Amino acid sequence: MVGSELYERFMALHTRDGGLVMPNAWDGLSALMLADAGFEAIATSSAAIAATLGRLDGRHEVTREEHLEHARLLGRLTGLPVNGDFEDGYGDTPEDVAATVEATVESGLAGIGVEDTSGDPDQPIRDFDDAVNRVRSAVDASRRRIVVTGRTDNFIQGRPDLDDTIRRLTAFAEVGADVVHAPFPPDLDALVAIVTAVAPTPVNVLVSPSDKVLTVAELQQAGVKRISLGPFLYTHAMGAVEQATKALLAGDLASATTGMSFERINELLARGKNQPEQPNY
User: 191-203: string of b/e by CB count within 10 Å (b at 16+)?
Assistant: First the structure.
């Protein structure tokens, strides 16, 4: 399943009652675990990919080709729609963003996120017009073959300006973004203001507003249509590894070596191996 058919399938998950929870995988096994649990779509996490490679997120240290190869692996193993967390679209210009979108379509991805970040720590958020032009270029290149998410990182880059955030998200929706996203609005009221301002464009939320972790039901009640986890399943797993290393240092081999059995791992890997050669993602 590719192109417009995949687009329609993925968008239908956003527009149905309740929307979807879309967790982010970081390797083949984590993707298979999410598929086995029954999730209907998964995403990459640029932060998790970078960390697994020993690199920093949001600094152009992971290449487009590396991210595409990773996303193709997740799709091939699971057969699920995969949304690519593709930072700023991997390029300095709107034309570069369009080339990235075309590459993601050719790779069979169901969605792509384009941020207004720059990769420059001194000026991390792009100017308004530049940001909008990049999302417009992504939408034009997509031709409704892949779901485009327009994202502003104002809140996580030290720019707590709700008005500017809404202005950006509204502009992204106006140029055709299928979904919009602003990670970690300050509170529920800010989130509801975003949802209201961009309606009927679906809104993605990364876990919750920054002041309180809400339930899935509470986010749905606020009008959120997609809930992603970003790197937080990965950091949860790494937290367990850190606790195991502390137990190991203390001489507690039993606590350091608990976890998933190899029988379970092999069971999941067999699922991926048995995916058809032409998967339906």
Answer: bbbbbebbeebbb
- Nearest to 6, CA basis, from 280, 223, 202, 275: 280
- In this prediction the pTM is 0.94
Rounded-to-integer distance, Cα 227 and Cα 40, Å: 12
| Pair type for strands 111-115 and 82-85 | parallel
Q: What is the pLDDT of residues 40-82, one digit of tens each?
A: 999 999 999 999 999 999 888 999 999 999 999 999 999 999 9
Give the integer Cα–Cα distance in Å for 124 and 251: 44
Q: Which residues are paired to 21 by β-bridges?
A: 227
Helical (H) or strand (E) element with 204: strand 203-206
DSSP state, 19? -
Q: How far apart are the first and last CA of the chain?
A: 6
The helix/strand/coil state of 81 is coil
- Among 56, 181, 66, which residue's Cα sits nearest to residue 114? 181
Residue 260, strand partner residues: none
What is d(CA 119, CA 122) in angstroms, rounded to the nearest whole number? 9
259 in Cβ contact with 241 (< 8 Å)? no
